[in-house]
């Protein structure tokens, strides 16, 4: 009795809780965020108290307030259970707020789920359609896997009801269930099929959505709907669409003058899924697509929504060529539209269809180029991407010019992409070397600091290969650097070239319109000095500069003292690399002076080591080849002579020293390392452990690194010199290589090195080469061994296998074989060729037995 | 499908938010202001679409109120754009000149309208009378 009294007292003391309206007013009148927070916190505390009192009268009001608070971003999870209580109430107003709360506050992870499932089950069968619909809506929103399984039967029953209102809602609820548990699809298929016979647009819309989702989830469903024995879906959809466009004005479904555009868009979307890759289905749609495309009113925005969808559908299915041209022309009209949204959509779509119909899109190039000047960044971005997709051999000059002027004016966020793409495109399509050098230089001068590092090596390589243009290039680079030393990549290229071709700075060039350089040796050194001491120069740039100055000591005649002074400038630098260079180079002037001229010889012509095809990401490649026929091949042909082998270069460098040691007379067959490996093999046999650096054969090895011109700063410069061929191949002679896999031009070569006993580890070097004319992109090599082995894979040297055996990807695999069993290995290779992903599998069981004996 | 929809005023205050796909609370608190800020910062001469993470954001401004919808990348932006307008028209025919205040004070009713138009992220009904039927029935019953 006592407790009852106290409760009664409490209730009397407590005033009725605030109305939602008042709470909103109070929150609105809060002037600061802190004030708002305190209002909310106070209210939350009161709501909590109310909940604790198990108060039924105001529960609905409290939950509504809580939902408002939740919307403002405050935690409101403590209201979850109250929502369930509201749902269980017989009153509609309570149920309504309860379900709304459940939708907003509950999620599939909450543990109150079991309770909800029961409530939902009851309400799904409720005779009031609004209550049943609330339950359907909530189920779709919060269904978990178990809930879906539990309630799918109920939903399927409702799908067959005669009530259109429930039908459309249950169809979309079914969609959520199928999305959650795809194997429940079977169950809904028969009922779904009949939904398309409905007259009610809501039901049709929901049915089309459901079918679309099923088609997206499984290819079996697509086939099912394409070739349904009871009812063919495609003609049915065509009929619905026809009725929509032919029926004329119907007030019931009119949206700004177009008959139910949302349904039209949905149907077109579904037709795209059904027609994709199916000539028969596509054939059945051709007529209606043409009709919709020509009959749609475009004075209003709605019309554009439909036309946009139809273009995607036409390009997505196996449609007639005339229809495709019509589609691209629609987009061309969009591009000229004054509405920015429509222009955006046009560019976005062109980007999606450019691979499907390259020539048709190409016709709108000038309009697209104009969009580069659009004030809207979203439009600009897409226009830029599209421009790069459209570049080919014939238009490269004009396009590059436009893009360079775009590069100058565009927002910083575009610059990096624009630079890289421009460099790649000019590498791919340049009409001649001079143009190529000019373009890359212009990129560097306009937006130098935004370019990625690889551009530096690209241009350096380019200049080194273009014998006749070196004077021209070095003079222009000098001018550009003189005018602006803030662009680091430009400084790096320019100093490298000045160092290398300094003697040509003052020579006449073979290019008639270039004027001779008006500068003295002193001037050149002054410019280099500026870059050397400038605080804004990066460390890498300084390293470039100091090496360049050293090289100039043999190329310039009158400025020796200044050169020595500049080189010594950093002999106390805190940067180890820079200091080392400074000190070592200085030594070259004193004790090692007789070696200097030999060491500072010109670098051999650099070979292309990598065929980069990032443009392929745009898919431009395939169409280009089709377009240009054989014209694209010169690019690959010019690479042929350079493909000789990258290690050739290394051999050149080591060629000298190797004569000092007697070379092994027996040449291992087609070993890439050639002499070098023999040399090391020799050393190994003489007792030193594998991998130990051979005795120094000349100068200081670190010096060589610097002279290579590429300050790669590898931990062991000697290794660096020898490229990626690991030293461990030294005793390769004892175990023969095997070819583990060969198909479609891809070949995997395994070479072995066995650690001396008692270690049971075998190190395999897997070298992937590609003799096909197309590069293999995103190459991933995976290996698996039986359980008795342990496998360790080191990271690969790259993920692109260049075409025509012009390079390789190597990866080291270590296999531990403690039980000394015969090694077997499963291989899996994944890569993309011409934009098509390929997966290959294989097994290797012909490993040489010596590996485990 | 539509992932979520916000109604935000010029000051960036959320007036309505509905998620059609589960979104982590904390994540929600992060992305909501970010998207709102992006939309509010856009100029008149920029288009109504922008990309944010995996979403394509479509927004439309009516007086001081922004309607922001996050669709999937493959959705038809123009149709969503049109849908926003249709939603506003429906609100207008219910509230008779809809204002920010109407939406704020009748949150539950706006949610109901939205629920009739979009179910689980898919547009389900576009006929205004049918959309408003349940709400009108309810109003009628409460008046009696």
From TrEMBL, chain A:
UniProt cross-references to Gene3D superfamilies, sorted A to Z: 2.60.40.1230, Leucine-rich Repeat Variant
Biased composition (Low complexity): 657-677
GO biological process, one term: vesicle-mediated transport
Domain GAE: 733-848
Region (Disordered): 609-677
Keyword Transport carried by entry: yes
Subcellular location: Cytoplasmic vesicle membrane; Endomembrane system; Golgi apparatus
GO cellular component: AP-1 adaptor complex
Annotated keywords: Cytoplasmic vesicle, Golgi apparatus, Membrane, Protein transport, Transport
Compositional bias per record (Polar residues), positions renumbered to this chain: 634-650
Membrane topology per record: Peripheral membrane protein
Pfam families listed in its UniProt record: Adaptin_N, Alpha_adaptinC2
KW Cytoplasm (keyword) present: no
Protein family: Belongs to the adaptor complexes large subunit family.
UniProt name for this protein: AP-1 complex subunit gamma
From TrEMBL, chain B:
Chain ranges of the AP complex mu/sigma subunit domain: 1-141
Species the sequence originates in: Lingula anatina (Brachiopod)
Gene Ontology biological process terms, A to Z: intracellular protein transport; vesicle-mediated transport
Main location: membrane
Assembly and oligomerization: Adaptor protein complex 4 (AP-4) is a heterotetramer composed of two large adaptins (epsilon-type subunit AP4E1 and beta-type subunit AP4B1), a medium adaptin (mu-type subunit AP4M1) and a small adaptin (sigma-type AP4S1).
Keywords from the named record: Membrane, Protein transport, Transport
Family: Belongs to the adaptor complexes small subunit family.
Compartmental location: Endomembrane system
Protein name in the entry: AP complex subunit sigma
Gene Ontology CC terms, in alphabetical order: endomembrane system; membrane coat
Keyword Coiled coil: no
Job description of the protein: Component of the adaptor protein complex 4 (AP-4). Adaptor protein complexes are vesicle coat components involved both in vesicle formation and cargo selection. They control the vesicular transport of proteins in different trafficking pathways. AP-4 forms a non clathrin-associated coat on vesicles departing the trans-Golgi network (TGN) and may be involved in the targeting of proteins from the trans-Golgi network (TGN) to the endosomal-lysosomal system.
Gene (name only): LOC106173305
Keyword Transport recorded: yes
